[in-house]
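Q: Hi! First time doing this. I have a protein sequence and I read that you can turn it into a structure. Is that right? Here it is:
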Amino acid sequence: MHREFLMGNEAMAVGALAAGVNVVAGYPGTPSTEVLEAVARRRPEGVYVEWSVNEKAALEVAAGAAYAGARALVTMKQVGLNVASDPLMSLSYIGVKGGMVVLVADDPGPISSQTEQDTRTFAAYAKLPVLDPSSPSEAYEMMADAFALSEELGCPVIVRPTTRVDHGYEDVEVADPGEWERHEPEGFVRDPSRWVIFPALSVRAHAAIEARDAELSRRLSGYARNVISEPPVASPRLGVATHGISATYVAENLGERDGVRVLRVATPYPFPEDLAVRFLEGLDEVLCVEELDPVIERALIATCGRRGLGVRIRGKLTGDAQPSGENTVESVGRALDAFLGRPSAASPGADEAVPTLPVRPPVLCAGCPHRASFYAVKRAMRGRKVIFCGDIGCYTLGNAAPLDMVDTCLCMGAGINIAQGVTRVEPGTKAFAFVGDSTFFASGITGAVNAFYNQADMTLVVLDNSTTAMTGHQPHPGTGRTMMGQVVEKVSIERVLRAIGLTVVETVDPLDLEASVETVRRVADEPGVKAIVFRSPCVVLARPEAVSAVDVERCVGCRRCVRELGCPALVPDAATGKVRIDPAQCTGCTLCEQVCPTHAIKGGERP
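A: Yes, that's right. Below is the predicted 3D structure, encoded as structure tokens:
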């Protein structure tokens, strides 16, 4: 054993490797991404790892490996679980042979997600055990627990870290690589009565799952990571029930003199009811401190009802804890102050003493080719009735002024189908659906098939920057390399679209503004479903050496470049009334050079 200072995601990756994981699949999504990347960096010979095209595919790959007796890990974020939910719900009934861990990173806040979903609630819906770590070191240890529990129960086990556990750091005691378990899969054994899901199998499985979870609830009351902490007083009357990272916030806000009993729930489903009863004994009131859904609060209310306990349970449902959003040390402290009748820890005027942080709005990077793509479409469609349907990726930032080019954004791949729906109601509207190259492979292809099959009238715009930029530049089928480092044949977006049946598929460099505008005008007027692939590499991966500069003698201060592009490298100069370019940010993409009416900007060099 040795100690390493690890991010939570890397700790879980090392925990999986130490537990003998054989196959790892996932789809990138903050805050989960680094788990699979750490596995790829540290994996020994014989461990297979892949970025799958989406979460559904990743979970099915892991399921196949677990059917064959391997230990399998699948990684995703909470919204990715929606994509994987179809196979997961059936897998709950079918079960697995090898250990299978589904690592789902929740994002309270949300900091980098569309929604604040709580995977603890999803686990109860899917009737699958879920482990809820409170720190990177506990997350490391829980990986081995999860694989062992999965193999014992014959079902997937969910591990549910949250952003502050994923991205927090801790000095973690980990096994040396020579101490890692070596798991040898038995291989797939044909048994249609077990591996082929039919209604009769599901009926039997459902009954068995209910019995299993009832017994598991009793067993988990003795799980070492479900903990009751007693205060140094004879008969405490108040209690706090908590979980995950919130448990550390509770610990920071409670002292021995507060006289509070604390329950930390590491297994929110099945809920450890017997342990909860021991926690509730002798208490008058309990405050539940948890993030997102009131999972513990509802479980304690139900426990009190079933066991006839007269304990008042307080939390989100009673207005004693914030109903949504991410907890902090300060927000938990305020809730505990009110619950315990303590004076607020914040001194008068403390809030005024904290300086206001500068506003930092999200913006496309300087030189991002997506800015050029949006601008070309906007210019080509000026004066026409148009809807711009966006999608999930860096290019969602195209909704900000001055581009204002994202009218809708729902979930990955949805923009293509939304564009179809709008044109059915408003046939005269020119509909554009923007989708990134990675998202096209993840969930856009089915929308394109649906559009062609149902004879939609729309323009599909694929913003191809040759990477999965939003989550850290992971490879995808169009990049020609895999997570294992293999160089493979690229999957051609144009060939896929033509194979579907599209006859108008044009590819253009978005940083060639004149050609891009002309292409958009021509393609948009074609009937049916047509496609434009704007192809230019992500500026983070292909940054040129030359940058643009403003000739102050030729600049007339019209600020058209600033008003129309919104590039962060373009800076209005209050002293001169003109514009200057920040050389630290400029990438020399030349888009502003092409927009400037007086040709006052020169010197850039497109990649």
